[in-house]
Amino acid sequence: MSNIVELLLNDFSPTQVIVDQADVAPFCRDYKGYNVGSAQAIIFPGSVEDVQRLVSICRAHSIKIIPQGGNTSTNGGAVPDNVGDSIIVNMSRMNRIVDLDLGNNSVTVEAGVVLGDLNRYLAERGRWFPVSFGSEDSCQIGGNVAMNSGGNNVLRYGMMRENVLGVEAVLGNGTVISNLRPLYKKCVGYDLGQLMIGSEGTLGIVTKAVLKLQYAATQTVTAWLACASLDDAVQILGTVRERLSVQLTAFEVISAFQRQVLAKFSEKLKDPIASPYEWAVLVEFRDASPCSQLTEEVEATLEAVLEQGLASDAIVAANLAQRELFWQHREAVLDANKAFGWTVGHDASVPVSRLPEFAAEVGRKLHAAYPDSHFIAAGHAGDGNIHLGVLFEKSAFGSTAEFRKAALEVNSIVFEIADSLGGHFASEHGIGVLHTEAFSRYIPEENVEAMVQIKTALDPDNVMNPGKIFGMPVPMPHGGNCPAGDGLESGARG
């Protein structure tokens, strides 16, 4: 047993420490199993004081700290490297709802609160936290803050950053920063809480957050449309925005081959529209007004879309079960693709107006490089974050090494095209360890240098999640069948 483990066992309750490697191992593997590391122990703090004490101990002994929430990151952002000397700080036991202020439409929570649990709690009180994605029943608020999570409702409500009013965190230098006043307006110098959002645990550990709430919807209308092209889908988005911009919540697209993969994966995921077409649009509207005529307004808007020839068919979900079935098509993408074969997916964004060009150019270049591959897309077209990717048959590669080589080339193709169109290679999944090279390549050197200076000031000993974002000093081993690329998501992770 190492000295640091002995110190932790002496300083924390035995119920807060896991040292048996068989029990530690599951926490060292990321959501998809592609990034696998090892750690000396896992600590489950119960308070901000516990976190501060742990940081002090690790800093004094130069021990790497890996902050971890629900461990749903798809880019290896919440798992250790393979050296085995790290300590994982799992926040799941700091899961209290500290304060709910209905008059202020805000809630203060500890970092370990599960997103889905929070929304079930809020639903009973007529409120809703709008940052939503497929992993909401396992991801935690602290991880959502650290990743600046996005998801399906960014189009209307923005990313995590736009929905956080305050943050408490323990920095890498051991200092606790806290601004938990639930204020919508404040201008009191640098907003250190906002600095923590999207930092991926490299500056400190988020311990609490104040979140902005919305009123629960009195009506939700969900529709599925059939389109001939992505350009038509983007035009539909424009029409919908003109007519129902306030109520429009989500606007997703799914390509033809992706829908075939879904139908093969599960009988219940057959295409809602039987006749063949290229692009499906999944669009959702919410209204909290008790006097809303939302259904009638949506139906009138869809009629206009059909009259304009932008869609060949449209179905409005008749009930909750059909609405959930529509969304299952979107959320089952990751599992369906893994079952199909080798997958390389991406998290790139471009301006919405450039989406058709982006998809066409990526599809053309991928087909030229790999004519036997299958172009796929399923993502948040409403905010420009369409998850493009490529599927290979299981027989396409004789080894993981062969696939890695192809995956790197696919990444290069997609990243270069996104960059040329004014986009970025990462939108809601973060950098983690998988995209450190792309980070150094596509982010201006001056920007990186400024970030490094901030990192050095707040985490002078580089104990907080070292290797994430800026580069991994020790290569991380990969398992599974997708060692490169960050995979098509079933929702943003946190």
From TrEMBL:
Pfam families: FAD-oxidase_C, FAD_binding_4. GO terms for molecular function: catalytic activity; FAD binding. It comes from the Bacteria. The keyword Flavoprotein applies. Gene3D superfamilies: 3.30.465.10, 3.30.70.2190, 3.30.70.2740, Uridine Diphospho-n-acetylenolpyruvylglucosamine Reductase, domain 2, Vanillyl-alcohol Oxidase, Chain A, domain 4. The keyword Amino-acid biosynthesis does not apply. One of its GO terms (biological process) is respiratory electron transport chain. Its cofactor is FAD. Residues 35-216 form the FAD-binding PCMH-type domain. Keywords: FAD, Flavoprotein. Belongs to the FAD-binding oxidoreductase/transferase type 4 family. This is FAD/FMN-containing dehydrogenase. It comes from Paracandidimonas soli.
